[in-house]
Amino acid sequence: MKEFITDFEFKNNRNYVHSTTMIEQLRVFVYEDFQHRDKWELPKIDAKFHKEVLYNGKYLIAEDLSELPESRTVSADFRFYDRNQSIYAVFIEDKAVNVVRRIKTNYSVEDIVMERDFCGTCKIGCPSSKAYVENMIEANKRIHLLTLKEEKNGLKVINLYMKKFPFYPPVTSEEKAVMIRIENISIRYREGSVATLNSLYFPQLVTERFEMAYIVEGL
Questions:
Q1: Does the reported pTM lie above 0.85?
Q2: In the structure, what pLDDT confidence band is assigned to residue 34 with cuts at 50, 70 and 90?
């Protein structure tokens, strides 16, 4: 097991660490200290975000899951894997270490076509791995906001988990965008919030489906 100290930033006007930021920093640690990116074959990631992350902290990363703390004691846990190997990680927040950096993100999510509640298609930009991940997450968020457009302003859309998320842009080096289809699996309304589970895939490509779950607060 290895330990890595984080240096997160807040995106735009957020005051919590975006899931894209957590995934990107984990990617750097895995590629630099465990297995170089060239040794992964179409890697995927599973991620569970147990609570909002407001501070920096540390990743604990291991090749054996038994070396890591239980999920209930951490802020998030991850599995980074392909068909031949797996790396496991957890994030532990340190409330003594503030996030001091802030960056501006310009998303590339275009041509959104809604089909029904929490379902639709759109095109996302993929100029880099980081941009691909953040645009994918943003696309699902916008589908949620468009579904709930009649609700009051100030909704908060939170990424709960990702399963079999393809951790690579599904495009060639010459392409910069890809179509994504988002289909709803389940919707659970509670007082003041709604939780969703969506299945996503690339309709123009032969790829495996993956899942993302969100919660929308402030209804």
A1: yes
A2: confident
